[in-house]
Amino acid sequence: MTGFTPTGKLHLGHYVGNLENLLKLKSEYDEYLLLADTHALGAKNFNYKDVRGYALDNLLDLLSVGLSENEVSYYVESDIPEIYELASLFSMYVSHNRALRNPTIKDEIKMKGLGDQFSLGFINYPMYQAADIMCVKGELVPVGKDQEAHLEQAREISETFNKMAGQNIFPYIKTLIGRVGKLIGTDGNPKMSKSLGNTIYLSATIEEVKEKVMSMYTDPTRLHSTDPGHVEGNPVFIYLDAFSKDQDKEQIENYKNKYREGKVGDVEVKRYLITILENFLSPIREKRKEYNDEEKLLKILKEGTEKVREESIKTLKEVKQILNFRY
Ligand code: ATP
Ligand code: MG
Predict the structure, then answer these.
(1) pTM higher than 0.90 for the full model?
(2) Ligand 1: which atom is nearest the Cα of residue 7?
(3) Which superfamily, per CATH, for 2-183+293-322?
């Protein structure tokens, strides 16, 4: 079980952070993919009217990378009222201090410049996330590194309720971090993030890829192409490593050596990166055409929602039993 906040389009960071693991595990697990539209309301400088469009666009991207509706249950948070009920019950068991101590909450406040203008719902985010996961009794949660702290909090909540029940009604929540837990942004910021605008989208056109790559941050200490350059921490090489195929590895090593020795310019390596990204993105772009139909997307959501609601109603009943809500 995992989710995305529909405040923007999906990007390369989402792919290496969790989509790749979802693809790898889809035949082994019953997968649930949530579009967390309620979470999106906590974002600052964001028009709530845009959420629906992004939710459908995210769904289109997810289907296009190869997570078909036959293998994954897709649903939207606002369609599952049991999530709200669970989240508000969970919040009774989390102290205010514990909620503010969450390192990801602290980081996001800083990174997104929220100051003291964040909503109560924003601090409550991990309680919603716990409800998202526990509603469907999620066991394995593929996420990027920034979500580790949230999952820790979800685990605490599930343990609290298991203890109260005197049995494990919720499975132990395992975190599964992607091959690249935090993909660097095109501007050199440690995290590619839709709220920072330092992204390359999975739906990017060839022109957009070229423009983004050509203006990408590389090695700020290198003024001329004959200066020895740094490969480590350089987004161009990080993306080459992350999105290339086995047959490209030798050429990449070659470029790395030449770059370190000052024997190749940024432009040549960037041109090569454009080819690598194009090889990666063009099949996704093709598949997008197959699913690009609003009616089709809404039908996929409807089917997922039916299944998830049934399970969520059951889970909520169990939790109410634990709390002795029997009238
Ligand atoms: P925002 O900046 O609005 O928080 P985001 O780009 O972080 O947006 P989310 O919808 O919050 O996107 O994240 C969805 C999932 O993708 C999470 O599991 C998150 O950890 C993962 N993820 C997001 N960005 C990256 C990244 N740069 N590298 C690896 N994983 C990422
Ligand atoms: Mg995020």
Answers:
(1) yes
(2) 3
(3) HUPs (3.40.50.620)
